[in-house]
Amino acid sequence: MIKKHMGMCNKMNTHPHNKDFVQTTSFGTFGDKYVIVMVALPARGKSHIARKLAWYLQFVHGADAKVFNLGDYRRDYYPNASVDMFDPNNEKGVKMRENCAERAMEDMKVYLKQNHSKGVVALFDATNSTKARRQWIFDNVSKKAKVIFIESIINNPSIERENIMSKLENSDYQGKEVHEALADFQQRVNFYKSVYEPIDDEHQVWIKVFNAGAKIILNNIRGYLLGKIATYVSCLRINKQRIYLTRHGQSEYNCDNRIGGDSGLTNNGMVYAQQLADFVEEKGLAKPEIKARLWTSTLRRTAETIQFFPSNIVQGWQVLRPKIWPCLDEIHAGVLDGLTYEQIEKHFPNEFALRKADKVSYRYPGGESYLDLIRRLEPVFLEIESSNVPIIIVAHNAVLRIIYSYLKQIPRQEAVRLEFRLNCLREIEPRTQTCSAKMFCLDEDCN
Ligand code: F6P
């Protein structure tokens, strides 16, 4: 068996660690400089968009991305400023806010100047609500970078209310009564409304997002990366629904410590399949009105893991009908598929050492790298962002590490070393700033 692998490996080893092409951990799609300028009244989700977008460009496209949040500068320079600071007729307040913008601009320019070996994106996260302010930003950076404006408009009262309520949790309002904080914040919004000028310059590059992606208008958005940014922004919802991630039950290959393959479940795996089905019921995820989604890979071990899930049809809706995604299949180990790590170390020491040295970019001969996996999983990230119902993903070790790390904003280098044990399930709850995660071990032996 090993001989067969060795023959194939010699023939097919055209992986990137030859001298012609080295794919590094930071490998990404682009090498330009971009400044993304957020535009919106307070509580229109602009910081949420900026943070998510920065992470997406970093994790998926390999860019250096950094958010310059003016609120942070304000809290730093003027920690106890009152709401009058936002009054456009208060000269002192205007000066204070201009001062914060100038500080942030200086830092942003330093960041853009640094020696980035790859694409770099700076996100200027502030209301930027007047034409004069936007022109000032453009004049400062347009010689150094491509400038894109993203305006978030929310005129749906329930989304507005939800956003305002989440704002009250931030440090500006700590220790304040809700009604007091609400009145203060509303006053701030009104000050901004009194001077707000929507984007209408046909010559600039911009994206207008209405009501968290319900409608999008694009202006001068051309080319690969701008198209990607527009698509990503259009997917972002104010998603408060949970995501459940679990590996399949124990497979025959797991039992033998072999990687990859398409084996079925062991008896232990079957036990987990039943426990998982019970968990899904207990959590109420099988209620038809919840409309939870179930996603699996195309491999036998995930299909067998969901075999006991409820699948009744209620008023034409099939509960937990599996969506079977090829992109959720396990990382492909190419010609080394089916071996144990010990066999790889013994018979393919070079491959073993290369993977150990750089697990993110190492590509199995005839197979995939983690970087390949990140690209393959991009549709999954976009579908998660677009969804507003709970999702249960039954997949594989490497795939789940990447999905989890995307959600929790864990860098690529750490992602590939995360432990994703069998018989455990992670519940991810999206929050305003990031995601919280909880682990459930369904197997008592699992500690
Ligand atoms: O061992 C189970 C498994 O899912 C293999 O099929 C896969 O190759 C491996 O985990 C991925 O983990 P790692 O990247 O740490 O080798």
The first-to-last residue Cα distance is: 35 Å
Count of alpha and pi helical runs: 17
General form: globular
Major β-sheet profile: 6 strands, mixed
- Rg, nearest Å: 25 Å
Number of beta strands: 14
Mean pLDDT score, rounded?
A: 90
- Look at the helices and sheets and give the structural class: alpha/beta
Strand order of the largest sheet: 2-3-1-4-5-6
Bound molecules: 6-O-phosphono-beta-D-fructofuranose
Q: Stretches where pLDDT falls below 50 for ≥5 residues? A: 10-23
Helix proportion of residues, in percent?
Answer: 40-55%
The portion of residues forming beta strands comes to 15-25%
Explained architecture:
With 447 residues, this protein is of the alpha/beta class. The protein has 17 helices and 14 strands. The strands form three sheets. A six-stranded mixed β-sheet has the order 2-3-1-4-5-6, with helices on both faces. Strands 11-8-12-7-13-14 form a six-stranded mixed β-sheet. A two-stranded antiparallel sheet has the order 9-10. The longest helix has 23 residues. It is globular. The two termini are 35 Å apart. Bound molecules: 6-O-phosphono-beta-D-fructofuranose (F6P). 6-O-phosphono-beta-D-fructofuranose binds next to helix 16.
Task: Give the topology.
Layout: H1 2-12, E1 33-39, H2 46-59, E2 64-69, H3 70-77, H4 91-113, E3 120-125, H5 131-141, E4 146-153, H6 157-167, H7 178-193, E5 206-210, E6 215-219, H8 224-235, E7 243-247, H9 252-255, H10 267-282, E8 293-296, H11 300-305, E9 313-314, E10 317-318, E11 322-324, H12 341-347, H13 349-357, H14 370-376, H15 378-386, E12 391-395, H16 397-408, H17 412-415, E13 424-430, E14 435-441
Parallel strand pairs: 1-3, 1-4, 2-3, 4-5, 7-12, 8-11, 8-12
Antiparallel strand pairs: 5-6, 7-13, 9-10, 13-14
Bound molecules: 6-O-phosphono-beta-D-fructofuranose (F6P).
